[in-house]
Amino acid sequence: MKGFGNLLTVANAKTIKGEKLGYLTGILYMSPERQGPDGRNMCEYSTPGCRAGCLNTAGRGTFSNVQAGRARKRALFVAYPTEFVLHLHVEIAALQRRAKHLGMRPVVRLNGTTDLDWPTIAPSLFTAFPRVKFYDYTKHAPRMTAPRPANYDLTYSRAEGRDAAARAVLAHGGRVAVVFSTRRGQPLPKLWEDYRVKDGDRHDLRFLERSGVVGLRAKGRARYDRSGFVVTA
């Protein structure tokens, strides 16, 4: 479809790590402002600390052209939701064909910098591509125990003031991502809330891991967090 351009990003630091493990990943990045000029709330359950240190500001997100591209995708999603989903179908099908050609497995992350309930927004994506693994992070704890497509994996993203929710997810056998103040190249804490911490910076393919705590090092503006969103290591 003309006018949409590429919606999925296939080449960046996150996807390259996955390729080394045999997975070809496409990630959808859109501007995540809690309340944009279009009135659409892309991160309804975000916290002040989360918004201040959003990953949207890390890595290539510091470049104005990248931000412009994410804003364009957001605008298209809000203005033309049906066409947007149809275009995602086209791109995911292409990703699947490319992965097969390369002898890799196709993976899609729809919430690269947003927190939308995609199984509700576009259930056709999950049924049309049963062999594609979809995965996301969310700050909406109820989604962790709600029914979802078999090919959709979720990780709860811990934030300030929500340790109780994180503990509940862990108690139910879920996976929780925790951002630590640990600097790049330094080891993460061994435990959080008595759960062993796995190094989540080795790759972004959370569905390869069992339940428990996934540790992430603070990046971008999150390195200067004082809200409690980033846990002091």
Task: Describe how the helices and strands are arranged.
Layout: E1 8-9, H1 13-19, E2 23-28, H2 48-52, H3 64-79, H4 81-102, E3 105-109, H5 118-121, H6 123-128, E4 133-138, E5 152-157, H7 163-171, E6 175-180, E7 191-192, E8 195-199, E9 212-217
Helix pairs in contact: 3-4
Q: What keywords describe this structure?
A:
7 helices, 233 residues, nine-stranded mixed β-sheet, alpha/beta, single chain, 9 strands, globular
How would you portray this structure in words?
The longest helix is centred in the middle third of the chain and has 22 residues, at 81-102. This protein has helices at residues 13-19, 48-52, 64-79, 81-102, 118-121, 123-128, 163-171; strands at residues 8-9, 23-28, 105-109, 133-138, 152-157, 175-180, 191-192, 195-199, 212-217. It has one domain (8-224). Helix 3 (64-79) packs across helix 4. A nine-stranded mixed beta sheet has the order 1-2-3-4-5-6-9-8-7, with helices on both faces. A hairpin with a 2-residue loop joins strand 7 and strand 8. The chain has seven helices and nine strands, in the order βαβαααβααββαββββ. It is of the alpha/beta class. 30% of the residues lie in helices and 19% in strands.
Helix proportion: 25-40%
Q: Which stretches of 5+ consecutive residues score pLDDT under 50?
A: none
Number of domains: 1
Q: What is the number of helices?
A: 7
Give the percentage of residues in beta strands.
15-25%
